[in-house]
Amino acid sequence: MSTYVERDVACPHCGKSSRRNVAESLNLGRSPHLAEPIIDGSFQTFRCESCNQQVVVDHPMMVIDFDRGWWIAHYPRAWEHSWESGERHSDATYQDTMVTYAPPIVAELREGLQRRVVYGLDALREKIVAWSAGLDDRWLELVKLEVWRAEPQLAFRPEARPRLFAAGDKTLDFWATTVEGTSKVLRVERVRYESTRDGADITRRAFVAALGEGTYVDLARIAFAGEDDSANVANP
To answer: How far apart are CA 111 and CA 143, in angstroms?
Structure first.
């Protein structure tokens, strides 16, 4: 089941706090409708009663779907520079909740789970969209990199990397950031993903293997040095 807890959430614009129900875990297998607000960008968003600005609650939580074999540890985007400690924290959480203290039935359910660590709700949406469309997120990251580098009008820095938000039979749609700082939809033919995956040379395969060395599968695994900041995940 999905679990929620009441927390004081401070508006980043005016500092006013309000009491909100915040998700600690989502079970998409039992409640698949909970994926919809993540995909459309409305998940845990509200208007501040004081300044009327939009507030997004970007809080640690676990996302599970046993039917589709997903186990995702979501952390705030601001913690991404310390992704190494995030991986360790997610490993410990998985061990506690899915192995050490789990009921016997979970032993069967956890077989074959894909485990990932993501930072920020846009990254969580990307995983859900990619996996729902049958995409291998490791190869998707390579395609993103090659498309990103080939577009001179796009800002080429870690925090501006493209994010998948829709995947169809023919096209993959990403949000990207231009050098002027504006948002842009970057549309890529799905056949490009397939041809990249199926025809990759040894260098590209090595790159993909490096991305898949841990549960944090993202271009920032290479772009960010992985500064360790255990205080973040120890005190969410």
So the answer is: 29
Determine if residue 41 is left, alpha or beta; phi over 0 gives left, psi from -120 to 50 gives alpha, anything else beta.
left
Instruction: Tell me the torsion sign for CA atoms 98, 99, 105, 108.
Output: positive
The Cα–Cα gap between 50 and 110 comes to 44
Residues 6+ apart with CB under 8 A from 115: 71, 72, 73, 90, 94, 215
Here the tokens at position 60 are 């640690």
Report how far residue 65's alpha carbon sits from residue 188's, in angstroms, rounded to the nearest whole number: 28
Listed residue (204, 210, 174, 169) closest to 190, CA to CA:
169
Which tens digits make up the pLDDT trace of 81-140?
999 999 999 999 999 999 999 988 888 889 889 999 999 999 999 999 999 999 999 999
Per-domain residue ranges for the chain?
3-234
Cβ-based neighbours of 133, under 8 Å, separated by 6 or more? 167, 168
Burial class (CB in 10 A: 0-12, 13-18, 19+), 56: middle
